[in-house]
Write a structure and sequence with these properties.
There is one protein chain. With 210 residues, the protein is mainly beta. The protein contains one helix and 17 strands. The chain has an eight-stranded antiparallel β-barrel with strand order 8-10-11-12-13-14-15-16. Strands 1, 4, 5, 6, 7 and 17 form a six-stranded antiparallel sheet that branches. The radius of gyration is 19 Å and the shape is elongated. The two termini are 37 Å apart.
């Protein structure tokens, strides 16, 4: 059923690719980004003639879920024009470029270190959430929900085999660079760590040529 709805929506724009451009937006100023397919709550906007908008297959009526340089939400796809003809984003893949912060375990503080491990983080979008897949041995997947235009939050139920929840906050999903905060505050473990992430691949973000 979802595929039928998607094909109907895309049929309105026969030249539109999944990584598309916002067009001239005459009399609009910017393309509104809504929280859901049916809500009128605006959480952001995309300027005129901006390319690299990734359109997913999660659509209802004329609105589809899109990602653009860290911004995510539903837009009216009738306002889009053709871009590159990439498939919809099935996942966002990031590698950790840096980690900053400390972990205190049983009263002993130590810097948060990264092993020589290049296994990526993967984030799979859905209509109303994303699933975060972390490298083993961390618990995975983790369901994350949107906090607004660019943030996603969820909870890692344990840490290193200990039943200690860790709060996760992922910012700027889909952008070339993103960040993820890990926070815990228990008698056994205290953690305040920031991971800096580099995206593998993704569309080129640039103004549309006239």
């Amino acid at each position: 059923m979802k595929r039928l709805v998607t094909l109907t929506a895309l049929a309105l724009l026969p030249t539109m690719g999944h990584a598309a451009c916002s067009g001239d937006l005459t009399d609009l100023g910017s393309l509104n980004v809504f929280t859901t397919a049916t809500s009128e709550a605006v959480i952001g906007g995309i300027g005129a003639n901006q390319c690299g908008i990734e359109v997913t297959d999660f659509c209802e009526g004329d609105r589809c879920l899109v990602f653009y340089s860290g911004l995510s939400g539903y837009i009216d796809i009738r306002r889009l024009v053709s871009g590159t003809f990439d498939p919809p984003p099935a996942e966002f893949v990031y590698t950790v470029s840096d980690a900053q912060g400390t972990v205190t375990f049983m009263g002993r503080e130590q810097p948060f270190g990264m092993d020589d491990d290049t296994r990526p983080l993967r984030v799979v979008p859905a209509a109303d959430h994303v699933m975060l897949y972390l490298p083993a041995p961390l618990t995975s997947p983790v369901r994350m929900t949107s906090t607004g235009s660019s943030g996603w939050e969820g909870t890692l139920p344990d840490w290193a085999g200990l039943p200690i929840p860790v709060s996760l906050y992922l910012d700027q999903l889909s952008a070339p660079q993103a960040r993820m905060e890990l926070f815990a505050d228990s008698d056994m473990v205290k953690m305040n760590v920031m991971l800096f992430l580099d995206r593998d691949g993704g569309p080129e973000l640039k103004p549309r040529e006239p």
